[in-house]
Amino acid sequence: MKKFNQISMPEKDEHKNTKEYKKLSPKMKKALNDQVGLEGLASNSYLAMASWCEVTGYKGAADYFYAQSDEERTHMIKIVHFLNDMGNAATIPAIKAPTASYKSLEGLIKTALKNEQTVTTAIHKMVEITQKEKDHSTYAFLEWFVNEQVQEETKFETLLQKFDLIGRDKIAINEIDKILAVEAATPEPTA
Ligand code: FEO
Question: Among 4, 22, 112, 167, which residue is least crowded by beta carbons within 10 Å?
């Protein structure tokens, strides 16, 4: 039995006792750690898209997707910080290789939209967990991601509309690439 004057040494998880009051449920912790992986996958996926655009000659699209890749990395890091701040050290997962080649710029953007929809579903599931568990801290944290996903999906939907509006021939694709170059050069508001 422990004596009162005995100095207790940190056990396996040093964060465990210091931030106990903010502890996440195992379900929430797992969902957030999984999201670290999903944001990392999004970052890698956009990096692969940027690289494909670069070698295919779509300079504007390449710049655009390099920037998207950076943005997704910041999302991943946001969640890592949150987990750590909550006293639940983040687990950095292995990230599977993304698709490396695409049939067209339009196909690539369709894949980007699909990826974002997958992320949105995951974020919404986490929000549902916070509501069930009355986890107000994580709920407030996730609010930013809910809004961000609306913007990201809208961004890719709008880009896909350009193919219907401008066309799919070489001149049209070149125009769309120029639009992407302008988008890439326009800084997004940071959070
Ligand atoms: Fe961070 Fe666009 O998912």
Answer: 4
Q: Give the atom of ligand 1 at the shortest distance from the alpha carbon of 120.
A: 3
DSSP reduced 3-state for 52: helix
Token pair, residue 10, equals 């940190």
Measure 115 CA to ligand 1 centroid, in angstroms: 8
Token representation of residue 166: 């401008």
pLDDT in tens, 103-115: 999 999 999 999 9
The rounded distance, in Å, linking the Cα atoms of 111 and 159 is 12
93: left (phi over 0), alpha (psi -120 to 50) or beta: beta
What's at 69, amino acid-wise? S
Residue corresponding to tokens 């969902």: 31
Q: How confident is residue 187, by pLDDT bands cut at 50, 70 and 90?
A: confident
**Ligand 1 atom having least distance to the Cα of 75:** 1
CA-wise closest residue to 46 among 28, 20, 72: 72
| Cα separation, 147 vs 112, whole angstroms | 18
